[in-house]
Amino acid sequence: MESKLVFGRISEHIHVQLFLSFLKVGFFMFGGGYAMIPLLERELIEKKKWIDKGELLEIISFSQMTPGTIAINAATHIGNTKGKALGGVVASLGIIVPSLLIITILYYVAGNHFESDIVQKAFTGIRACLVVMICRSVYTLFRSGMRGSISYVFFLLALLALFCGAHPILVIVTGGISGFVIWKWFGHRTKKASI
C-alpha cells in the first residue's frame, strides 16, 4: 500500500512524466522527422495537453532553423517549459535512450542480415507506412499553419523556390524576414487607420 503511494507520487512528478512521455514517443518514432509528428500530437497535445497544434507548428518551424531533430527540439523546449532546465534534460534523454538501445540491439543481433530479402521486404512495408504518416503530418501542419491569404502566398512562393532548386535554409530565412517585414508594414497601417 505504501509502495503504491510512493510510486504514485513519483509518477506524478513533472520530470518523471516528461521522461516517460518522451520515452514512449522515442520507442515508436520510426522514420524520424515528420513521420513522428502524429506521435507527438497524440502524446503531447491529446493526452498530456502540454501544448496545442499551433505550438507544435512553432516548435517544428523553429526546429528547421536549429540543429537537431524535431523530436529532440520538441523534447527540450517542452521540458524547459514544464520542468525548467532539468525538465529539458530529462525529456531529451527520454527521446534519445530508445534510439540508442534499439540501434545497439539491432546491430548486435542482426548486423549481418540487413541485406537479406526478408529484412529488405520488411523495410519496404515500413517505408510505405512512413510515407502515409508524413502525408498526414503535412495535412495537419497545412491546416493549422495557414492563417490568412498571405500564408498561401508564402506557401506557393516557397514551393516554387524549392522546386527551382533554392536551398531550404535560404527559403526559411527569406520567409521569416518577409513575414516580419509584412507584419511590421501591415501593423503600422492598421495602427494609423485606427487613429
From TrEMBL:
Cellular location of this protein? Cell membrane
Asked if the record carries the keyword Phosphoprotein, the reply is no
GO terms for MF: chromate transmembrane transporter activity
Q: Does the keyword Transmembrane helix apply?
A: yes
Where on the tree of life does the source sit, at the highest rank? Bacteria
What keywords sit in the KW lines? Cell membrane, Membrane, Transmembrane, Transmembrane helix
Please list every transmembrane segment annotated in the UniProt record, as residue ranges. Answer: 20-40, 85-110, 122-142, 154-183
Q: How does it sit in the membrane?
A: Multi-pass membrane protein
Q: Which GO terms describe its cellular component?
A: plasma membrane
User: What Pfam families does UniProt report for this protein, alphabetically?
Assistant: Chromate_transp
- Sequence similarity: Belongs to the chromate ion transporter (CHR) (TC 2.A.51) family.
Q: What is this protein called?
A: Chromate transporter
Organism of origin is Sinomicrobium oceani
Give the classification, highest ranks: Bacteria, Pseudomonadati, Bacteroidota, Flavobacteriia, Flavobacteriales
